[in-house]
Structures are given as C-alpha cells and as structure tokens.
Design goal:
Layout lengths: L3 H21 L8 E7 L5 E2 L24 E2 L12 E2 L4 E2 L2 H11 L9 E8 L9 E5 L8 E2 L1 E4 L13 E8 L14 E12 L2 E12 L25 H17 L15
Antiparallel strand pairs: 1-2, 1-6, 3-4, 3-12, 4-5, 6-10, 7-8, 7-11, 9-10, 11-12
C-alpha cells in the first residue's frame, strides 16, 4: 500500500493548522507614535513628514494598522536616518522631498511666544512620553538644537498605558532661536521623538516637520522680533488630566503611598 495518501493527509493537516495559527495571531502595529498635525499661528495646519491626512490610515474605531504612516527612529541621540523611516513611504524619509511638499501645501508659523502646538498620536503603550524636540535652523537636518516641550506626552521612559490616543503637545523654541532654511530663509526643520521598546531603546517614534519663523524668538515678557501669530495659552486637556491622575493614583497605591480609609466610630451616649 502506498504511503502517499497518508503523507498528503499529514501535510494537509499541517497546512490547515498553520493557516489557523496565522489567522488567530494578534494584529501588530508597525509603528508606535506619530505627529498628525502642526497647528500654526497663521491658521495653517501642517503634518509630520509621511503622514497620510486622507483618512485612509485608521486612528480610532476601525481596524487596521494605525501606525502605517508613523515614523520609526533608531534609538539614541543621533538617529539614522535623520528623520527616520515610514512604512507607507517604503523606507527613509527624504527631507528635501518632504520639505518641498510641505512648502507647496502651506507652512504653519510659530506662535509669537515661540511655541508650536502639535497633535501627537499614540498608537499603543510603546508610544508614550515624554517627548523630546529639537530643531535644525537651516532645515537640512545636519545639526540640531534643543527645544523646550512645555506641554508633554504622558508617560515614563517612553511608555504609557493607552492605545490610539491623540495628545496635545507644545514644543517651544528657546530665546534667541531663529530659522534660516527654505527659499525665504525662515524655515526650520523640527524633530520630535518619544516612545520605547525597552529600557535601552527609547525615542523610537514621532516625526519631523517644518515651521516658519520670521525674526528671532524674543525673551518672554518682552516685545520681541518674532513675527509668529497669535499666542494662545495651552493647558492640559481633560483627557490628559484624567489619564495622569489615574496613573498617579495607581503608582501611589502600588508604593503604599495612599493612606487607608478610616471608618468613623459610633459614639454612644
């Protein structure tokens, strides 16, 4: 009797089992965080390099890879490529190409207090804060200077227990900062990074974008030469406050920092 039918049956069983195992594997996001919007003082809304603003990449409420247009960075202070890589771009971000596209679409201006409000999208828990931002004055990405992040992502060491959340982040130029890139010598390249995959692999997501700054960022409280538009005060959103309070309470309970409730004793006459 030929053993071939038995072998075929075994292979068929293995194939079915392998197919079933692939079907039940959990969906994995390709990236961890991204910069959806750059909100300019001139009313222009820019986007992080590589972001698909058409709505085809799911954010909340729909299945699919919410990190398909998010930027991935190599960890460390000097990522290579400079502006990372994006899955939808099929590789490294080309700074010159993305800058040209952003200029054609309209460049958001820095607010008069030197700040840039961002909509930072956290894909999953590995895309948490805090975020760090820096800028390249000539827009090339050859060198960077640090910025202040005056309203940051929630999280510790790049992790925060949230999925598909959009957070308001504010990056702020330091006093004396100026931009010299682009055709009008007033564009800066900004890079913001957050997230982690381990204790030694941090700043692995986020993105790059450009902004326009005429003049120099003045000292706070002075009438400076920066010509950014309206400066609005940005505070924590209710969503950020609720998340931060929840995490703080959990950490306090974990470390036995919350005093136990005392019940009132009944007083007898």
């Amino acid at each position: 009797m030929s053993p071939r039918p038995m072998k075929n049956a075994v292979f068929a069983g293995l194939s079915a089992a392998m197919l079933w195992s692939v079907q039940i594997l959990p969906y994995t996001e390709s990236r961890y965080c991204s910069i959806l919007n750059v909100n300019g003082g001139n009313g222009v809304t820019g986007h992080g390099f590589g972001i698909d603003a058409s709505g085809r990449v799911p954010r909340t409420g729909t299945s699919g890879d919410a990190g398909a247009d998010a930027t991935a960075f190599t960890p460390g202070d000097n990522p290579n490529p400079v502006c990372g890589s994006v899955a939808k771009l099929h590789g490294a971000v080309n700074i010159a190409d993305q800058t040209a596209k952003s200029i054609a679409a309209g460049v958001p201006t820095v607010l008069s207090n030197g700040s840039i409000p961002l909509d930072f999208f956290q894909v999953d828990r590995n895309g948490g804060g805090p975020a760090a931002c820096e800028y390249s004055a000539d827009g090339t990405g050859h060198s960077f200077e640090p910025m202040d992040v005056t309203l940051n992502l929630p999280g510790n060491f790049g992790a925060f227990p949230a999925d598909r959340k959009t957070w308001r982040v504010v990056a702020t130029f330091k006093e004396g900062s100026r931009c010299s890139g682009g055709p009008d010598k007033n564009i800066c390249l900004v890079r913001c990074r957050a997230g982690q995959t381990s204790e030694t692999a941090q700043k692995i997501c986020g993105g790059c974008f450009i902004v326009k700054l005429d003049g120099t960022v003045a000292k706070k409280g002075s009438s400076g030469s920066s010509s950014g538009s309206d400066s609005s005060g940005y505070t924590l959103t209710s969503q950020q406050m609720d998340s931060l309070i929840s995490v703080s309470v959990k950490l306090a309970k974990k470390n036995n920092l919350v005093a136990p409730k005392h019940t009132k004793r009944a007083h007898h006459q």
